[in-house]
Structures are given as structure tokens and as C-alpha cells.
UniProtKB/TrEMBL annotation:
Its EC number is 3.1.26.4. Belongs to the RNase H family. InterPro entries: Ribosomal_bL9/RNase_H1_N, RNase_H, RNase_H1_euk, RNase_H1_N, RNase_H1_N_sf, RNaseH-like_sf, RNaseH_domain, RNaseH_sf. GO terms for molecular function: magnesium ion binding; nucleic acid binding; RNA-DNA hybrid ribonuclease activity. Gene3D superfamilies: Ribonuclease H-like superfamily/Ribonuclease H, Ribonuclease H1, N-terminal domain. It comes from the Bacteria. This is Ribonuclease H.
């Protein structure tokens, strides 16, 4: 049987679900429930964010969803929405640059079963930009996500850079069709984007890449931000696990007290 993705616009929990049993729990005996199945994750994401011709059963996506969708087609997810998502592995990314352009670094926070499990930092560039740092973080998160899906884990990546998300999930497909060119001029960070887009083709039906606002108190995003600063301060060129002793608890409060990017 072909895999389906279930969008719940109105139910006990809203979001995208990867199995009918979980979806059914959200809408069964729920007054005014709105839901629909889709054959691919891309279609489900577009429908949930209100950017698809495929609508909810009433014929239109709920107005509350439309209002939260930005004009450029990237929906921003709140901490509450993220917490309600039935996802095994949630990966947060961030990149920093001081100044811009200047010293750049990337950070990642990986949550498994709703608990922080890994923190990564590095990819230092002595003369980078905010965009390269954000792309580098997203690229590494995609690699982690690919590994997680090979273990049959559901995965979502949360990135606070709309530029990075759109480069990979929206713009690159047309750039590739046109020989990696665009009428308005140079495609910046092209070689990195090519690598990321190739990987995206492998994982796009298994991994969600979603937007979250930075510095609004979303714990995973804040931790990824602190890791980007650690990367700049340490000048770590590789990508290094911050909590190398997996038996030691991560002191979230202490990390959040560090300087933000």
C-alpha cells in the first residue's frame, strides 16, 4: 500500500501525520474536524500552509492557517505547533556571522523523543555571511535527517532562515532547469546549494523542512543559536559534537545564559 500523509487543519492536534491511526485520534468525534490525505509530503506541506490548490474538505484552508502563512509562501511554526507534531526526531538549525560578512559559524540542536539529545557546532569561516552559515547548518541537518530516516524515524528540520529553506525547497528546482542560472544575475552560494538540492531530492518525501522564527523563545532554536556562537568563538572548522559525553545531562539553563547571536 502506498504511503500517505495526513493533514489535520482542525482537530485535537493540528499538523501533518504520517499514519492514519495517529490522524484518526485527532479528528474522531471532534466537532468541525478538517483533514485530508495526500500522496506526498510536499503536497501535504503545501496544503497545510495554505499554498496549494488542494484544499481542506470544506473547499478552503482554514483562515487561521492562511493568516500564519507569509506572503512568500513559507509558513512560520510556533513553539506550540511544533510541540504538537508527532515527529520522532526534531532538528533545529542556526547560523551566525559577526559582522556580516565576517566570522561565521553554524549550530544544530537535535531532539529525539522530545528531549534534547545532541548539540553540534562548527563550520567556521573567517570570512563568511549569515546566509552561508545558515545554509551550512541546514546542509548538515539534512545529512543527519537522512541518517535518521534510514532508521525509520520521522524527521522535521526547523530553520529560522527563509532564504535557506526557499533556496532548497522552492527556487533550486527552476535554477537547475535553467542550467543553474537566473535572469536577475548570479546565484550566490551556488556550489553549496547544488549539493544541498541533490540531497533534498533523496529526502524530500521523508523529511519536513520548516520555518521557525529566531529569538522568540523556541528552545531548540535558541540552543542552535548558542552553538553557532560557540563555533565562532572556538573557530572550529569541522562540525563537532558539543556534548561528547552522552551520559552527562545537557545543562540547558547554562547554555541559554550564554551570549545570543
Amino acid at each position: 500500500m502506498a504511503k500517505k500523509f495526513y493533514v489535520v487543519w482542525q482537530g485535537r492536534q493540528t499538523g501533518i501525520f504520517t499514519d492514519w491511526i495517529t490522524c484518526k485520534k485527532q479528528i474522531e468525534k471532534f466537532s468541525g474536524a478538517k483533514y485530508k490525505s495526500f500522496p506526498t509530503l510536499d503536497e501535504a506541506q503545501a496544503a497545510f500552509s495554505g499554498n496549494s490548490a488542494s484544499k481542506s474538505p470544506s473547499g478552503t484552508a482554514p483562515s487561521s492557517v492562511k493568516k500564519r502563512t507569509s506572503a512568500n509562501g513559507v509558513k512560520t511554526y510556533t513553539a506550540k505547533e511544533i510541540s504538537l507534531m508527532d515527529i520522532n526526531t526534531k532538528i533545529y538549525t542556526d547560523g551566525g556571522c559577526e559582522p556580516n560578512p565576517g566570522k561565521a559559524g553554524s549550530g544544530i540542536a537535535v531532539y529525539r523523543a522530545e528531549k534534547i539529545d545532541e548539540l553540534w557546532y562548527g563550520l567556521y569561516d573567517s570570512y563568511g555571511t549569515n546566509n552561508t552559515a545558515e545554509l551550512n547548518a541546514l546542509h548538515y541537518a539534512m545529512r543527519i535527517a537522512d541518517h535518521e530516516t534510514n532508521k525509520d524515524q520521522s524527521v522535521a528540520i526547523f530553520c529560522d532562515s527563509k532564504y535557506s529553506i526557499q533556496c532548497i525547497t522552492q527556487w533550486a528546482v527552476n535554477w537547475q532547469k535553467k542550467g543553474w542560472k537566473k535572469p536577475s544575475g548570479e546565484i550566490k552560494n551556488l556550489e553549496l546549494i547544488k549539493k544541498m538540492f541533490a540531497l533534498y531530492q533523496v529526502i524530500k518525501n521523508k523529511v519536513q523542512i520548516l520555518h521557525v522564527n529566531g529569538h522568540v523563545g523556541v528552545e531548540g532554536n535558541e540552543l542552535a543559536d548558542r552553538m553557532s556562537i560557540v563555533a565562532i568563538q572556538s573557530k572550529e572548522a569541522g562540525f563537532k559534537l558539543y556534548n561528547e559525553d552522552k551520559n552527562a545531562p545537557i545543562d540547558i539553563k547554562a547554555l541559554l545564559s550564554l551570549r545570543a547571536g
